[in-house]
Amino acid sequence: MSLKNKTAIITGAGKGIGRAIAISLAKEGVHVGLVARTAADLESLGQFITEQYGVKAITAIADISVQSEAEAAFAAINQKLGAIDILINNAGIAQFGNLLEMEPEQWKRIVDVNLMGTYHMLRTVLPGMIERSKGDVINISSTAGERGFATGSAYNASKFAVMGLTEAVLQEVRKHNIRITALTPSTVNTDLAVNAGLKIGEEDRMMQPEDVAELALAALKLPPRVFVKTAGIWTTNPQ
Ligand SMILES: NC(=O)c1ccc[n+]([C@@H]2O[C@H](COP(=O)([O-])OP(=O)(O)OC[C@H]3O[C@@H](n4cnc5c(N)ncnc54)[C@H](OP(=O)(O)O)[C@@H]3O)[C@@H](O)[C@H]2O)c1
């Protein structure tokens, strides 16, 4: 199915997986709305996308953990791109530490961005999709949304929650011809992984953001009557 001239909002588009998904959508002729907190990242990506692929690229600075900022970002993009066909809920943060060692504020921040940010974007974008009886949402969860590990309590809780949120909302909106897919990648070579100290020195053998983008694209290109509910993607053997 062609994605040409569709519109998409990608959160966390400034770097890593979100950036790769934004580029792969633009390559397909999708007009993109790019959301993150760092203006410089979004501006350089927006310029690259319009020059390279000739589609519209609108940037909106927002901390998606704040509902009013998520709403303002949507409004700004909606005004310039029109109705939104695709929402990529990708923005996320990771910090690891034992439950008793992490500060409560640090723990809560992870849930606020990864879960509440996804919720805020869904709450903002879904009404238009329901009204038009079509839409695609991809929630970037993680293998950490399927299996817990020591030091992962905040990240695991946030990503398990994204899986539950995906499953529940899917039941509500499928009748409106809206698809929601949760992708669960294992470690991907991005700043998030490297800053968290994951697989340092193994970056070349790790999955790359473009690999996740290919899976997202494949899910979006399926005929509207079918959808991927959950899809894992691993560099190493799944444990
Ligand atoms: N890398 C991995 O190994 C891996 C594996 C599985 C799943 N994931 C998930 O994949 C997603 C993307 O991760 P990544 O590895 O690509 O991370 P990344 O390279 O650190 O990029 C994250 C992006 O999200 C943005 N962001 C962070 N907090 C935000 C907020 N409050 N509001 C708006 N934007 C925000 C960041 O920009 P600003 O800081 O400028 O806002 C950045 O553009 C996350 O949900 C992550 O949990 C990652």
TrEMBL record:
The keyword RNA-binding does not apply. SMART domains: PKS_KR. Residues 6-186 form the Ketoreductase domain. Pfam families: adh_short. GO terms for cellular component: membrane. Keywords: Oxidoreductase. InterPro entries: KR_dom, NAD(P)-bd_dom_sf, SDR_fam. Signal peptide: none annotated. GO terms for molecular function: oxidoreductase activity, acting on the CH-OH group of donors, NAD or NADP as acceptor. Belongs to the short-chain dehydrogenases/reductases (SDR) family. This is 3-oxoacyl-[acyl-carrier protein] reductase. It comes from Paenibacillus uliginis N3/975.
